[in-house]
Amino acid sequence: MDLLEALKNRRSVRRFTPEPVDDEVIRRILDVAPWVPNHHVSEPWRFVVVTGSSLKRLADLRYQAVLDKRRGQEGAAARAERARQEFLEAPVVIVAIQKLDPNPVRREEDYASMAMSCYNIILAAWSEHLGCYWNTGPLVSSEAVGEWLGLTPDERPIAFLRVGHPEMIPVQRRSPIAERIDWRR
Ligand SMILES: Cc1cc2nc3c(=O)[nH]c(=O)nc-3n(C[C@H](O)[C@H](O)[C@H](O)COP(=O)(O)O)c2cc1C
């Protein structure tokens, strides 16, 4: 797979086929996660791979987190149910967890590395013909999810990456980058 082409052609995939994903493929994908620019080589990450019957638990937690956030709003239950179903349709969810440095500058730089690490995972999945979808939302700050993941007080989840075989690959648009580049010579 040509890297430049993959960088442009990769899309966030929302819908997956029911086909499972081998643990071995997930291991291969996660193998590239640490190989990103990382100031002080702080390695702020850890990952939880959620699959099998644990997906149902995570999907239920997502339902509750969305419901709690939208309590009293019209359509809250339907929205929460959709959120649950989304997680039930993915064969794997990878949770990326950042260890929070007490120093705010380091914490911000670590977040940059976390995001790159997630992107490595997403690109590695793409190279295996798998799609990913990066979810945040109410799950990220849910106490119940934190407890279920066994988070320590200095950890926070930054991404819930749904991974699976794409049912369809959406089309996206970007503005021409030349409009946003200012050369100084
Ligand atoms: C930090 C971050 C958080 C995101 N959280 C959500 C989310 O909670 N819900 C959602 O629908 N998409 C979320 N996305 C995915 C973006 O919506 C998606 O990448 C965007 O639509 C661009 O599509 P593309 O990746 O196919 O170019 C998130 C992406 C990032 C980088």
Written overview of the protein:
The chain is of the alpha+beta class and 185 residues long. The protein has a domain at 3-50 and 92-167: NADH Oxidase (3-Layer(aba) Sandwich). It is built from 6 helices and 4 strands. It has helices at 3-9, 23-31, 54-69, 76-89, 104-127, 143-149, and strands at residues 45-51, 92-99, 131-135, 155-164. A 4-stranded antiparallel β-sheet has the order 1-2-4-3. Bound molecules: flavin mononucleotide. Flavin mononucleotide binds at residues 11-12, 134-137, 172.
Q: Which helices and strands appear, and what pairs or packs with what?
A:
Layout: H1 3-9, H2 23-31, E1 45-51, H3 54-69, H4 76-89, E2 92-99, H5 104-127, E3 131-135, H6 143-149, E4 155-164
Antiparallel strand pairs: 1-2, 2-4, 3-4
Helix pairs in contact: 2-5, 3-4
State the shape. Answer: globular
In CATH terms, the superfamily of the domain at 3-50 and 92-167 is: NADH Oxidase
What is the CATH-assigned architecture of the domain at 3-50 and 92-167? 3-Layer(aba) Sandwich
Tell me the distance between the termini: 35 Å
Summed up, the helix count is 6
Strand elements, count = 4
Q: Give the amount of beta strand, in percent.
A: 15-25%
Describe the biggest sheet? 4 strands, antiparallel
Protein name: Putative NAD(P)H nitroreductase
Cofactor: FMN
EC number: 1.-.-.-
Pfam families: Nitroreductase
